[in-house]
Specification:
41% helix; two-stranded parallel ribbon
């Protein structure tokens, strides 16, 4: 494992919520899942700013992929995960990435594009910096998926990912992040 990946994983796991989620998800039996987004990056930023590891984290996102895109199938997984993490004092949100193209255009006004695995959703985050996922196997081995690398998150650089036209989302979230973690260097969303 590369040094930066080892440091990143060690920091992320200092947030006990991340650690519990990874350990328990390894036992669920989903083949393609990732703990992803803000709960990872914001844990790093909290440690760098001297905050509690779980401070300011709104939710803990779990992505999974299941070719069954029925609402009922996703609802069953959501209920299972809610039970699994009912004792945690945080909101854990799990979503089937295969379903995102079904509702995305109606919500945002443009198509999301095809999805073939849970990691496809990670690569489409509005921020390259938080486009990171961690999955743990039952034997404890962890895998990091970071299509844009880990350097930016570790350096506190927020870099846009204009693969989808979500500049408003980017500006809203980075505005909030800049107030909480003023040490961040936040790049502007590129002009069209």
């Amino acid at each position: 494992m590369r040094d930066i990946e080892a440091r990143f994983l060690a920091m992320v796991r200092q947030n006990l919520n991340n650690d519990v989620i990874l350990n328990r998800m390894a036992t669920v039996g989903l083949a393609d899942w990732w703990l992803t987004a803000g709960c990872l990056a914001q844990t790093v930023w909290n440690l760098q700013a001297g905050f509690a590891t779980d401070a300011h984290i709104a939710d803990y996102d779990l992505f999974y992929f299941d070719a069954d895109t029925s609402f009922e199938a996703e609802d069953r997984v959501i209920a299972q995960i809610a039970d699994l993490f009912a004792d945690l004092p945080v909101r854990v949100e799990i979503r089937n990435q295969a379903r995102v193209p079904i509702w995305y255009e109606a919500k945002y006004g443009f198509p999301y594009g095809p999805v073939t695995c849970a990691a496809d959703g990670i690569a489409r985050f509005a921020y390259q910096t938080t486009a990171i996922g961690i999955a743990q196997q039952p034997d404890g081995a962890c895998y990091v998926h970071a299509p844009f690398g880990l350097e930016n998150v570790m350096a506190g650089r927020v870099v846009p990912n204009p693969v989808l036209p979500v500049g408003d989302v980017y500006r809203q979230k980075t505005g909030r992040w800049g107030k909480i973690w003023p040490q961040l260097s936040i790049q502007l969303w590129p002009d069209p």
